[in-house]
Write a structure and sequence with these properties.
With 592 residues, this protein is α+β, with helices and mostly antiparallel strands. Helix content is 43%, strand content 15%. It contains 21 helices and 16 strands. The strands form three sheets. Strands 1, 2, 3, 4, 5, 6, 14, 15 and 16 form a nine-stranded mixed β-sheet that branches. A hairpin with a 5-residue loop joins strand 1 and strand 2. The radius of gyration is 26 Å and the shape is globular.
Length: 592
């Protein structure tokens, strides 16, 4: 019989520890410390309390917890001395059925890992979907993590232990993340479509209006129809638009969605999670034969990444009337203009202006997105409330000095362009860090015609500066640009600097941010507010209507724009539940 939160709350301390036996391997002290947080409001609340018990433990206790876990396919498995939980997990991953070569490989990895880190390799082998990783995935992860810094790897080991505990708790409480699995499976199915040249390498790349991109649009449209949307269409820029009408004809709509294009060799969840989470909400509304007092419009935006053409936010920009006809003449790397690509896709240029939405017909815009960073995963929090999408400014520049012989030019006589840019990079790094939540990046650096024995006479660079509000961004930019001038003057070099992009910050509308907060709090998940360092479609809709975003934790250090980008079925389930609560709360507000 499944355990319930009420049972756990009502049990004595000893009984409660016994009820949670086996969740953390040979470590009942974790449950004992977590129980001081009773009464638990929900299973996510319990999970967080257990995580906090480990977080606040001593380093020795944390290492003891890690060392309490058996090696994968190790001596304990061979001698059949694993706990029942570990036996089940290693069985599911096929580790009890290794070939001699696979077994030898894992044994060597175990030895190398233990030598480097002093504790066993920990991996939640049932994986982010809960059904088990393939042996190849396990070995690849083992090899990748062997190169981590010891301090970082300690955190990864603990995070995997918490994922193991989460799955075991789900089993104890019979909490099957059914909706999270639906979202997971939709994303896996969509990831089957990828551009030529990448499919052969097993890489995911979907750029604007390629055959793979159009296949994605068709797949999303089909999934929307099956989920129960009243109308589904692919519009004149390739957006997939699904509407679930409200109880009253002509009611205003809540707008949501995200993009389905990807960067090259990217991940499966960037953008796409924000399409499928609200789709799951519509699926549940349809199953309940329920209508809301407002319409619900979900858009899979056709383009956000700017990978095939220089134009970005084509999908969301078209909805606010920001589509520049000059973009149609841009060419991709193969010389194909956007106009030609659109003609091949059967899209009519004259229909683009018709896509502009009337903001008075909308309540606002909300977006769910994978975090694309390490903050939530390091805090062991599944959801984050976005306070603002950072404003940004970008430059390309060049420092011009004097190329000279590396051996005969004394250090005090050099006009080294690269050294000047190096000093600028360090200044930008230190200046952004002073704000706490600003960031500065030099992502491109080039010494044209550089040679190993020549003092660099020229150095080209890019500069990307971001901050949660425009004033903070502008102050950062002023200081960095002033520093560049000072550095060049002092070093006897000159510079050029061109501003290539300036985007305003998009602070969340307070009432919509509060709606996300209310939903997350109702789930029993601690509230964590954070800015978004990345740009999102919500930035465009922010120009014409109120917006707010919800972040979902990513695993593998929260990495994004990378094949390792991932999330778990449990976190996706929570995102759907939070969205459902937002819809319910909004319905209640409108009823009054």
């Amino acid at each position: 019989m499944a355990l319930t939160i009420d049972q756990l709350n009502a049990a004595s301390a000893d009984e409660a520890v016994a009820l949670l036996d086996g969740v953390y391997e040979h470590s009942p002290w974790i449950a004992a410390r977590a129980l001081v947080s009773r009464p638990f409001r929900s299973l996510p609340h319990l999970k967080h309390a257990l995580v906090q018990a480990v977080t606040h433990a001593s380093r020795e206790e944390q290492l003891g917890l890690i060392r309490a876990h058996p090696e994968l396919a190790g001596k304990a498995m061979v001698s059949k001395s694993l706990t029942a939980e570990s036996t089940n997990e290693q069985n599911r991953a096929g580790l009890t059925d290794c070939t001699p070569e696979e077994f030898a490989k894992i044994q060597q990895l175990n030895a190398d890992y233990n030598t480097k880190f002093g504790f066993p390799f920990i991996l939640a082998v049932r994986g982010p979907r809960g059904t088990g990783l393939l042996k190849r995935e396990i070995i690849d992860t083992f090899e990748r993590r062997l190169h981590h810094h010891p301090a970082f790897e300690l955190g990864e080991a603990l995070r995997n232990i918490h994922r193991i505990a989460e799955i075991r708790l789900d089993d104890k409480f019979d909490a099957d993340p059914t909706i999270g699995n639906v979202v997971w499976d939709w994303q896996e199915k969509l990831a089957a479509h990828t551009d030529p040249g990448y499919a052969e390498k097993g890489q995911l790349t979907v750029t604007y209006l390629t055959d793979a991109h159009r296949a994605c649009a068709a797949q999303i449209a089909q999934d929307m129809r099956e989920a129960g949307f009243d109308s589904v269409q692919i519009d004149a820029v390739g957006n997939v638009v699904g509407r679930y009408e409200g109880a009253t004809p002509g009611a205003r709509a809540l707008l949501t969605g995200s993009h389905y294009d990807t960067v090259r060799n990217g991940g499966k969840y960037d953008g796409r999670l924000g399409i499928f989470v609200p789709m799951a909400c519509v699926r549940e509304l349809k199953r309940q034969n329920r209508r809301l007092p407002f319409a619900f419009e979900v858009v899979g935006f056709a383009e956000e990444e700017g990978q095939r053409y220089k134009a970005t936010f084509l999908g969301s920009g078209a909805l606010i009337g920001h589509f520049d006809p000059a973009w149609l003449d841009q060419k991709d790397a193969d010389g194909i203009t956007m106009r030609e690509a659109r003609r091949h896709a059967g899209l009519e240029d004259e229909d683009i202006p018709k896509l502009q939405r009337d903001p008075s017909k909308y309540l606002g815009f909300v977006e769910v997105h994978i975090e694309q960073g390490p903050v939530l995963t390091e805090l062991d929090l599944p959801l984050g409330i976005v306070t603002s999408i950072n404003g940004s400014v970008r430059y390309v520049g060049e420092v011009i000095g004097m190329a000279s012989h590396a051996g005969t030019t004394p250090m005090d006589r050099r006009r080294d362009a690269a050294a000047a840019v190096a000093e600028l990079i360090l200044f930008a790094e230190q200046r952004a860090a002073k704000d706490g939540d600003s960031v500065a990046t030099v992502g491109m650096l080039e010494v044209p015609s550089g040679s190993i024995n020549v003092v660099p006479g020229r150095c080209k660079f890019s500069l990307d500066l971001r901050a949660p509000n425009n004033a903070q961004r502008d102050a950062l930019a002023t200081d960095v640009v002033d520093a560049l001038k000072e550095i060049c003057e002092r070093r006897g070099v000159r510079h050029t600097l061109e501003e290539t992009m300036r985007a305003a910050a998009a602070p969340s509308a307070p009432e919509w941010q509060q709606r996300w907060e209310m939903a997350v709090d109702t789930l029993g998940v601690p509230l964590f507010r954070m800015p978004s360092g990345a740009g999102h479609d919500a930035m465009k809709l922010h120009e014409v209507m109120p917006q707010a975003m919800l972040f979902v934790r990513g695993i593998n250090s929260g990495i994004s724009h990378n094949p390792l980008e991932s999330s778990t079925n449990d976190d996706m389930q929570l995102a759907v539940q939070a969205f459902q609560l937002l819809l319910d709360n909004l319905a209640t507000d409108l009823a009054h």
